[in-house]
Specification:
The protein is an alpha+beta fold. The chain has one domain: Aminopeptidase, CATH 3.40.630.30. The chain is 34% helix and 32% strand. The radius of gyration is 18 Å and the shape is globular. It starts with 6 loop residues before the first strand and ends with a strand. The protein binds coenzyme A.
Length: 199
């Protein structure tokens, strides 16, 4: 019979995490949260990221609700690439629901389109109390490491900052170096780390 150890998710600065580690707990995985406050420098950095993708041949812009189908197809193709931990997971959205949320202003989406119109990268965001959070970001496997995730995240900040949004949040798995670096490149600062501890 296989038994699964329960995993406790605690902030890295929680004294209970230190106590558990001292008594032999193992860090099974980690996650992190990051915040960005819009400043003139941040806007310049976002503009540079978007410009670099445009110069490399992609069109970077907001997605219309009827483009939700292309976004979901892109995401479905990368679903197996999202690192899964007890605190981070991803479900491919339903195209109809995502399109309706975009139309209602409950979600925003920004994408990078290749010259032939193929959607190669996208990010989806939603409003929370005092900020805008990133729901997910995805780049087609064949188009990775060309700055597209950074560009679509940058486009989102530029567009939403123009409507008065100045605080952004995101997070992810400790294993997801690409996601963390794309955020940090734009000015997101990691504000918290979470340890997933197994006794
Ligand atoms: C995470 C993801 C969106 C990054 O997309 P991308 O378009 O390749 O990212 P970028 O090209 O903008 O690269 C961003 C940074 O990450 C770095 N990076 C990209 N892939 C990397 C990898 N596999 N390992 C280490 N660093 C990586 C880049 O060098 C860049 O850092 P730099 O600015 O310091 O050079 C893409 O890997 C992906 O779709 N993964 C599956 C879905 C996922 O995990 N989404 C994020 C969680 S919501």
């Amino acid at each position: 019979m296989t038994t699964t150890q329960p995993v406790r998710v605690l902030r890295s600065d929680d004294p209970e995490a230190a106590r558990l580690l001292d008594s032999g707990a193992r860090v099974r995985s980690e996650s992190w949260g990051a915040r960005l406050t819009v400043t003139p420098d941040v806007l310049d950095t976002c503009r540079a990221a978007v410009d670099a993708a445009r110069e490399a041949g992609w069109t970077v812009r907001a997605l219309a609700p009827e483009e939700a189908t292309a976004l979901v197809a892109l995401d479905a193709g990368a679903a197996g690439d999202y690192p899964v931990t007890v605190a981070t997971s991803h479900d491919v959205p339903d195209a109809g629901e995502l399109g309706a949320a975009l139309a209602a202003g409950e979600r925003w989406a920004f994408g990078a389109f290749a010259a032939d119109g193929r959607l190669d990268a996208a990010t989806v965001l939603y409003p929370v109390a005092d900020r805008v959070d990133i729901d997910f970001t995805v780049t087609r496997a064949a188009a990775r490491r060309r700055g597209l995730a950074t560009a679509v995240k940058g486009a989102a900040v530029l567009d939403l900052a123009a409507t008065g949004r100045t605080r952004f949040g995101t997070g992810g798995s400790g294993d997801n170096v690409a996601s963390r670096r794309a955020n940090e490149a734009l000015g997101y600062v990691v504000t918290e780390r979470w340890l997933h501890l197994e006794a």
